[in-house]
Amino acid sequence: MEKKDLEQEQSPPRYRTPRDAKDVSSGTDYIKPQHRNLYDTNVTLEEYHYYAQKTRAEQDALEKPKTPWAAILKGKKHTSDDVAAPDAMAGNLSKESNRLEITDEEWTNASRAFRTASAGACFYLITTDILGPFAVPVAIGTLGWGPGIGFFTLFGFFAGYSGYLLWKVFMGLDSYEFPARNYGDLSFRAWGTTARHVTNFMQALALLLLLGQVTILFGQNISQMSKFNLCYVVCPLIFVIVGFFLTQIRTLRNYGIIATFAIWLNLLVMFINMGVMAHSPPNYAIAGSASAGAQIDPTTVTADAQGNFPPVMHYSSLPVHSLVGSIGGLLNGVLAYAGAQLFVEFMAEMRRPRDFLKIMWGAQFFIYTVYMIYGCFCYFYQGQYVTNPSYQGVSTFAWQTVGNALTLVAGLIAAGLYGNIGIKVFYNNVLMDMFKCPPLSSKTGKFAYGAIVPIWWTIAFLIAAAIPDYFGFVAVISASTLLNMTYTLPPFIVLGYDIQRHAVRADEGEGFDPATGRVTRKSSGLKRWMRGYLSGGAFQVAMNVWHTLYFLASLGMCGLGMYASVEGMIEAFQDPQRTSFQCRSPLEIS
Q: Does pTM surpass 0.90?
């Protein structure tokens, strides 16, 4: 054995904090979990994994919580917001002095208190979060029958697979002693501080851009309902003002009834659209700007000299006219599977997170089925005239207005949730962690939250007023953030987890000793990472290679998507009728 390795093996425990935090009973300098910094880089994956296995054993012995379906359907809160946190957890835990006052029992009981959601409740949350198929018809329309159904199926499967990867890492790193609360926590434990900051920034940015996207969409809703008589720049402003007051509600429990109502509104709009589209022509009036045909071949949605529009047509394979338009349509469809960024938050509230896997696959299958039936139905009847959102492609003004009005209500709820969650991600992971701001539950935190809300919504309004090209903007959001959150980060995180886990040589005395807090490692740096990458058996090495390729392919898709979406935006803004802060509606034609 080399001298350097021998010194490392016999080194004292790595963790150092003030004397008050020492575990006197063991006679060591081992620092208990509650006495560490919230994101202590000295805590190794071996320690996270040890406590995670201990927690899983306890949770597996618990009785499965029953899902209060009657309460859910009535809109009553059914997650951990009903459980009051112990007094010991009410302070700002980013301050070391507050953590030193917490005992072992208080720390673990506080973590248990936040975990009450059942598998059925999480199924409901997943389907509520990402059920919104109104972009699917245009995705199929820009890709054609074969590629559209194929790509949508493929992306649906890999969205589920990414959810499985997040579940796998969560099960191996989350514990009562070291609870994983959000997406960034998994990145931190697998790759370190930089990865955590990048993940948190990307999640907050995604939620902010989604808020801007919703503002654009429902600004156009209001514009269309007014028959374009209302100056367009005022339309998103109306939406922002109402959304601003909704976001002042800090706790999600107060969204219970209206959030439940929103999903039924969306389903009602779907059934109305399908019935009206089957018995009426497409909405030719907006086909030149918002349809699938406008993205891939504008001549297929342009009227002739006599004012007659081309007949409905379908592509069986990928249209050759515009690769940029087809990729843009695909990115609009990817928006349907963007819920993975909240999966960690869902698992963090489950009493038995092991059950998350089966309900996640069930929810993905349910969502995929609903999306595919609706998307194919709309494309069959409207062909190249399908729009995003699809309900604006209804030609009968009365039914068009019904769709706009119902989705406007649901959109306000969604916008309030995006604003609420986005601000919390920003506040908890940037202001509290980096600048030691007080928790949101404190009086000062409440004032800070209220002050951030108007700034957040102002940014959303500026985005909406400056970028009237809804189709292109959704493509930009998907390529820059949503693809990464759903498809790029999960294989990257699981790679870091698997490499570190299989780098441990238990037969050589490596690992974590809970009695002393000692972490023994006989190698470090690149040598250890390569050892972990090539360890675990042939199957594990093959999975490491597969996850590397999955990560690189997803990253490449993001790059290609960004190129296509930016090119599409440039082309859209070459139209002199599309300008920032305009009074003319983007849906209005000459």
A: no
